[in-house]
Amino acid sequence: MRTLTLIAIAFAAYLAADVAHEGLGHGGTCIALGGRMLLLDTTYESCSIQSRWIDLAGPLVGIVVALLAWAGARSARLANLRVFCSLLFAYAAFWNLGYMIKSGIAYGGDWHFAVAGLAPAGVWHVALAVAGVALYIGAMRMLAGAWPSGSDMPSAAFALTAYVAAAALSAAGGLFDPRGPSAALTDALPSSLGSIGLVLVGLRRTGGVALPVSWAWIAAGVVSAVVFVRLLGPGLRF
Fold first, then answer.
1. What is the side-by-side order of every strand in the sheet holding 208-209?
2. Where are the alpha helices (DSSP H) in 19-154?
């Protein structure tokens, strides 16, 4: 049941990271600029207007939420709340910083759209890639400092389980994407697999993690999975 508790907390944390990026970031800025959200799913938000600020808001809000989660992980007294905050930090930080690296190299995605039209384009994209790598490494160090230390589960098993759980949830939601099931491979999985920093930190930890069994968190994880796959997966149309 301890592993089930971890998977449930991972589901809840990944849902929160996803909503922060797509809903609060892209969607909230769309509305703030006078637009109307047309579609919101697990990997995409469509707005009636276009703006580089809408593109940029997704990863920026995701990073802000990650920083708030990091602060929560360092101050939380309840073990499972600290696990939730640690995973939310990992998913949100590594997703959005990994996205920065990808945008800089592949000339696509939110960070790319945010600098589109700025010259010289090559310099901007190199800067994105270099900054992304530096910030990603910094986020790994921050995660190590907020690790939910304890003796209930080895850190490596904790990190690998949470990583795979997020990947499975993102893929499941992507299969229902209104743009087609291929979105699971092109958009959903890259977002979750970008959190490999979680695994790298976990493999380097010699201690364990505090993770008591919790039926409340298991219930919250089930609800999170249903919302992610069956509600956000096919998308909300407005």
1. 149-150, 208-209, 153-154
2. 28-32, 52-75, 79-106, 110-115, 121-145
Q: Contact at 8 Å (CB) between 80 and 5? A: yes
Inform me whether the pLDDT recorded for 28 exceeds 90: yes
Q: How confident is the model at residue 70 (pLDDT cuts 50, 70, 90)?
A: very high
d(CA 90, CA 66): 7
Q: For the segment 184-225, what is each residue's pLDDT rounded down to a tens digit?
A: 788 888 889 999 999 999 999 989 999 999 999 999 999 999
3-state class (DSSP) for residue 46: strand
Q: What is the mean predicted confidence (pLDDT) over 12-17?
A: 98
Query: Distance of CA 202 to CAs 148, 159, 171, Å?
Result: 11, 5, 23
Split into its structural domains, the chain has a count of 1
Q: What are phi and psi of 175, to 5 degrees?
A: -65, -25
State how far the Cα of 118 lies from the Cα of 124, in Å rounded to an integer: 8
Tell me the residue range of the domain where 138 lies.
2-237
